[in-house]
Every structure is written in structure tokens, then in C-alpha cells.
Amino acid sequence: MKNTTHIVFPQGFLWGGATAANQFEGGYNEEGKGLSTADVITAGTHTTSRRITPVLEEGVNYPSHEAIDFFHRYQEDIRLFAEMGFKVFRMSIAWSRIFPNGDDAEPNEQGLQFYDRVFAELKKYNIEPLVTISHYEAPFHLTQKYNGWSDRRVVDFYVRYCEVLFNRYKDVVKYWLTFNEINILTLSFGAFMAGAMMPEGNGELAHATVKDEQVLYQALHHQFIASAKAVKLGHEINKDFKIGCMIAYMCSYPLTCHPDDVLLAQQKDNMSNFLCSDVQVRGAYPGFAKRYFRDHNIQINMQEEDENILKEGRVDFYTFSYYSSTCVSADPNQEKVGGNLSMGLKNPHLKASAWDWQIDPQGLRWSLNNIYNRYEIPLMVVENGLGAVDTVEEDGSINDDYRIDYLKQHIEQMKEAIADGVELIGYTPWGCIDLVSAGTGEMKKRYGFIYVDKDNEGNGTLARSRKKSFHWYKNVIETNGEQLD
């Protein structure tokens, strides 16, 4: 549909970028930090070459241990974000930096002081922090002693962690997200990454899953309860807090107009996307989930107060990641392609990235409308970007026009969604500075506006340099999305 009106982003729109502690912070054992689930995953070039090693091995590359060393370079990095004009910076706090074992009686003061310094640096440049409380990182001790989120006791450990954060940073952080991509827990290797549960298999990350859906959905329920309790607690500590959910939005089209394909696409949208957000936004399990549980003999162990907890802990806004779209079909013989921690079917009308993720800017508009029409609460796109191999030219320049083109097209579709009536309040492209890929463990798969000199083997100076997209995005922010060329 042709755009016939001049569309503008609202004043005060939150332009910025997104990161996660386990992928860029480093300092994995400094100043009292404990071992996290991310700290025991080895490096690799593909998911299948990565392993989970409960005991750290000598001579093995664990990418989270140094990552890109934000722990020591946060002032330089935040200065670069400020140069681009960031209004908001999405980051996560490493749970194991605050509670090294997760079930500790008292928090680690040195860890709290590190984030004191980070928030002070952000405030110096008037950059609003958007803090993810749990982002694919939990104290590994919780995995070893409790099997992670499968144990209800972890809810209390998480809420205590939130209470410390909310009280400590109540005057410097306004925007919070309870769990990153909470819906990933039941998919792929999310049982370990998102659920901190010890997986089945031989230690390969690609096969690090829990096959028992009863265990998976019970663990997910515990995260729902933890999130709701955190929302209620946060509002009690500071009524101005805005606390949101974060969903890995998996945009899926029916491959054909056959009713079987159309119904299957709806069912995937429901269980993959809307189950989690219905619980977190509406405060109750939807009917389609209850049917799924009946059909698959899943019994959610709910305590007497749980329904009320979910109602009282509804989030204030909805955030999500969007990278690509896939198709679904009842025909099992169709060609499959990759995606953000998920698989789908190839769409013959789309091109794909070097990692076989299909590029679909219009799918972002469709997703924004689909979400907003259901909930009518403020939305933020907190992850979006193109993973690509960048080439450093002889003069040091990095001409990532392919990244600019990808982001430009997606921003154009965000404009269209705003014209459609969607209340979109912010945009934080993923990996605003190059960091370690969560799925593959690579540095080669780069997303950033800022290049970091480090390779897959962990070699490099860690020096930062501006890519062409750095200057482009700076202009986008300066013009509030008016100039995209």
C-alpha cells in the first residue's frame, strides 16, 4: 500500500541501541561476580560446535568471559553511544554479578557499585537506561542446585534480586524488562539459556533442550509468577516505574491459502507469541493455551494465589525482538530456513541474510499492528538488526551499506505502523556495538554501528571504530527519523 501522507515519529521517541551483559560485558570473575549459565558455554562458529561444560576447561574459549570488555570500557562505549545521539540504551544486569550464587543472603556490593558507575555515565549524557533484569544469564549455582526455573524456590530468589535493583536504582532507572524473550524458554535450547535448566543430551548446545513439556511449561509458569511479583513490587517501590515484557516475536505466514496452513499459522502465533504476552499483559492464561495443555496432558501446578498474582502483576508496556519472518505449512516436505532461535519454512518472495534469516521489513509493520490491535498498550522494538560479515578497508573504514539498507527499510515500516495507529515509543537496534552472538558464539556475525577488533578465536585489540552506519544512524536520530538516506 502506497504511503500518501507525511508520517513522522512522535516527539520524545526513544532512539537508541540494545545489548546484553553476557554478550558484551566481560569481567566474568571480577569484583565478586559468580559463574553464570552463559559463562559455561564454549565458543564456536555454529550452534552445533558449542558445548556446555559444567566445569570450566583449561585452554577453551568461553566468549562471555571477556566478550567485548564493556566492564572496563564502559566510559568509552557510552561516549560513543552519546555521539550517535542515543536517547535510550537497552542493557541488562548480570544477575550473578549482584547475587553470585543466586540464593545468597546478601548482594555483592562491588557488583552494585559497577552499575552505579554505568548509570552515572549514562546520566551524564542524558541517556535513559532500559534495563533487562534477566537476559539469558542466571547464576549457574541455581542450575546445579535447583535445576533452574523448574524449581519454584527460584521465584523468591529472583524477586529478592529485583528488590535490591529497584531500591538501589529507583532514582536512575525508569524502564525495566523482567525477562528477555521469555517465550524462548520452551523452544530450541531455551531451556538452558532462558530457563537455566540442565538439559538432556551430550552437552552440545544445539541439543541442549528439555523434551518434557510438563517441565518446560511449569518452569515458564514460575517465570510468569516471578515477573508479576516483580511488577507489583516495582510499582510499590516507585510508582513512576514502567515495567514491560519482552517477547521474541516470531512472525509466521501461512505458506498457502489452504485452510490447514492458515489455521496452523494462527496456532503458531498463539502458542509461540501470544501465550506469554497474554499472561503478562492481560494477567491470565488464554483459552488456546488451556486447550493445548489438555491436549498434551500438561498439568500446570498453580498455587492458590497464583491467578491473583498474575492479575496484579500486569506489565505497563510491551517490547519485542523482530529480525525476520518465516512461513508455516501442514506439508512436512517444504524447505526450512533459520531464524532467531527458531526454524520455519522458506518464503519464495523474500531474500535472506548470510545466516539464512529472511529479510522482511513489511513483516515488522504487520507484527506491530497484530500486537497493538490485541493489547493497545505502548510498544517498543527493542531488538532488530542484520548480522553480517564486515570488511575493514585499508583506510580503516567499514562500508556497511547492507546494514543501513536493512535498518532503513524497517524504520520506514515502523513509520507506516505509526500511521496505522500503533503507539510505538522506542527503537533499540540489536548489537549497537559488535558483540558475541548468543546463538552461534561468533564475533564474525556482527550487528553493530561500532566495530570491535576481535575475532571468533578471541584474538584482537578490542579497539572500537565507527562504521558507515554509525554516521547514518546519528543522522536518523538527529532528524527524528526524517532523513533515512
Automatic annotation (TrEMBL):
It holds the Pfam family Glyco_hydro_1. The keyword Transmembrane does not apply. InterPro entries: GH (IPR017853), GH_1_N_CS (IPR033132), Glyco_hydro_1 (IPR001360). GO terms for biological process: carbohydrate catabolic process. Keywords: Glycosidase, Hydrolase. This is Amygdalase. GO terms for cellular component: cytosol. One of its GO terms (molecular function) is beta-glucosidase activity. Belongs to the glycosyl hydrolase 1 family. The keyword Translocase does not apply.
